[in-house]
Amino acid sequence: MNRVSITVPARNGLEHGSSNSGKAMIRFGHVKSFLVCFAPLSAVFLAVVGLLSWEGSAVREKVISDDQRYALEKSISVLRERIDIVVSDLLILSESQQIDAVIAGTASLDQVADEFAVFSLRRGIYDQIRLLDNDGMEIVRVNYGSGIPFSVPRRELQNKSERPYFQLARNAPRGTIYISGVDLNEEFGQIEKPIKPVIRLSAPVFDRFGERHGVVVLNLRAASTLEEVVKSLKLDGAEPFVLDGDGGWMLGGKPGENWSEELTGMPAVIGDRYPKAWESMQLGLQSFRVDSGFYSVQRLDVSDLLLARNSNRSLSVIFGSDQEKSSRLNLYVGARLPNDVLEQLLSPERDTLTIVSTAFIFLIAIGSAAYAWTRQNQIVASFDARLSEQVLRASKNSVVVADDTGTILKVNPGFTAMTGYLPNEAIGKPLSFLRAQRENAEALDEILMAARANGTWEGEVRNRRKSGDFFYSNVVVSAITDPTTSDVNFVEMGFDISRHMENAQELWRQANHDALTGLPNRLLFEDRLEVACGHAENEGHSIGLLYIDLDGFKPVNDRYGHEIGDQVLRKVGERIKNTVRQGDTVARLGGDEFAVIADAVNGRDEAEWVAQKIAASIQRPIEIDALSITVGASIGIAVYPGDCNETIALIGFADEKMYQQKRVRKAKGSDAARALH
């Protein structure tokens, strides 16, 4: 800032001349100060704008790439979840009670077909569910049809003994499944029209004595599955596609290209139309731009997808066969953004950059003019203070400023909205007063030390609102040093992630609990049994496993319908849960089967006592509206480690004991009936 000294003389003439000279000097000082400020700032800003315009496309492409990768990862997650469901369905059907009943001679194949039809209708993803005997002959086959499952007449059943899914599953051990690549369904040696892309899965069927009794086969409707997978890839005009391992079009090709090799004998591959894109895919690139557009691609090995979702199961998998095309086991899933679409996505950023640049030049001019009228240090200090205050007030996230000891100096409105504490209730208190646990409060010193050493610290903490509610917050703690005094202040910025945590917990609950009763499902039950047995082994006590199957439940379903049957199952689950101890686990394994893990029992006598209490609670009449329904229960008991020291064998032992009790009851019932006659 130019300093101008103005002398006021006694004479009018000199006064007038001095005044004009002083005004000229002031005007010159304003112009000079304006240029000193405006010229370098404008030069720097224009240089930055030039750099941004040069790098703008790359930055925007990075954003687009990230969006596409996120959508692709979401699609792969959908596919993995679908495969996991299908594998679980296959294992459930291969161990069906109806099939066991047919083997035992107490049920008919028509009942198995009815069970398959209900299963197919509820899932809606299987084109066929079949049961083959030991010779490969279909003995039950349910087709999905046009949304209505139906059982194929026996005269139309076919011999599938030469098919890989039968040959490879027929002699496989228990716990083994076969999975094919994606292929078109064939009937009587001809591709079915309209085409039906399917993935075939099969598993051997064993009775409870370990004897083989055929193979269960699922035909997964691959078209709807793949359509669901690529649905989220239709982002910003992207064109999703699915290719086989050789680049052949399975989904996303032009008319006549999808499955062209199978339908016409003339393969159509992506390399014919987009050779550079196909070359990049084969090199393993996942995001790239070539002359035909921008691509996001993921190569999927069916084996990786399946094994990644079943790494914790005792499951063996057979992939494909020598008769299948190997490329059907490996897929490329991705999306293409054509260049014209990509340019349209990039152009709004350039227009915005021009508008922002003009606005900033105008702001620089205004700032330079203000600088010309005031001293530079006053303007800078005032601007910094206003800017900091505006940032604090405008931010919706919580912002807390603390001194070097962690004592709160300032908070913003976002802090009050998140925690409920007014500024006067928080200022002067340590940051630790927000922490929900003592361990978190004690860790605060370590957090501040890390921020002081590294500049920042980021992580998740559990805080408490003024109302007493707990919430999770993602915080970034920054250490800011005043260069003039070397004093250190800490700035903690955080946002509430409780909803994300709750969503994650809800997803876990849905995956591990039965939708009808709310009880743990088979997956969670087996996990808890493994943990309980481990604790029992370490602490030297016993575990009681009760396998419960309802007696007389099927007539309830047949007579009153599934809605009443569902209410009965819920009532039974509640009664079992109310009968056992709070620390015991009650699970619904499927159908009318329940199981209880009785922790720390004093041998078999106590386990049998618990079983008697459960049986008595189940046998009490169940009142539903005007109905009084009575069901019984057959309960098999196994004690760990007395009966078995391996969890899967323990479940099988309890299951066998349950069936023994059921057979005894049926025999007694038959004797009583004969005595009456």
Automatic annotation (TrEMBL):
Keywords: ATP-binding, Kinase, Membrane, Nucleotide-binding, Phosphoprotein, Transferase, Transmembrane, Transmembrane helix, Two-component regulatory system. Residues 384-455 form the PAS domain. The chain crosses the membrane at residues 33-54. Its main location: membrane. InterPro entries: DGC-Regulatory_Protein, GGDEF_dom, Nucleotide_cyclase, PAS, PAS-like_dom_sf, Rev_trsase/Diguanyl_cyclase, Sensor-like_sf, VP0354-like_sensor_dom. PANTHER family: DIGUANYLATE CYCLASE DGCT-RELATED, SLL0267 PROTEIN. NCBIfam families: GGDEF, sensory_box. This is Diguanylate cyclase.
